[in-house]
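Feature request, filed as a ticket because there's no other form

It would be nice if the structure record came with a short human-readable summary line next to the tokens. Right now we just get the raw output. Example of a typical job, pasted below so the devs can see what we mean:
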Amino acid sequence: MRILVLIDGSKWSQKAALHAIAVAKRRHGKVILFSVLDRREAKAMAFNLGLYSENLSQVEKFEAEIWKDMKKSIKHLMTTLLELCYEEGVNCSFRIVEGSAKEKILEEANSGQYSLVVMGAYGRSGKTRIGSLLEEVVGSINPPVMVVR
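Raw output as currently delivered:
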């Protein structure tokens, strides 16, 4: 059994990972932690920072720093979860890709490699809203999906 866990850095995705680890431990499965980094998110944050600081000439610099921090943060979280898997005796690996979250998640989840996809009910904002990523992808994922609250 191969379990794909969608990680976005939120406490909800971390909780989803804990559930996936427990399932994998009982079923002798493998956990694959998967995260998508979208450069558009870094661009938007950099632009907002430039507006807020009244320093639009520094937007490119802000973007580069934000992008670097996003990558560092998700790698740290993945490494922490990977260590937890090993402590629990669960085979685990992680992948971080760049692009559109919806496209990359559907591509990976529907690749035919997974028996189960696990994701948090909420994203980093912690709010549900119409058009959230959960709503956009859950109906288009072929394997069973476990949504963790």
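Something like this underneath would help us a lot:
The longest strand covers residues 30-37.
The CA atoms of residues 40 and 100 lie 9 Å apart.
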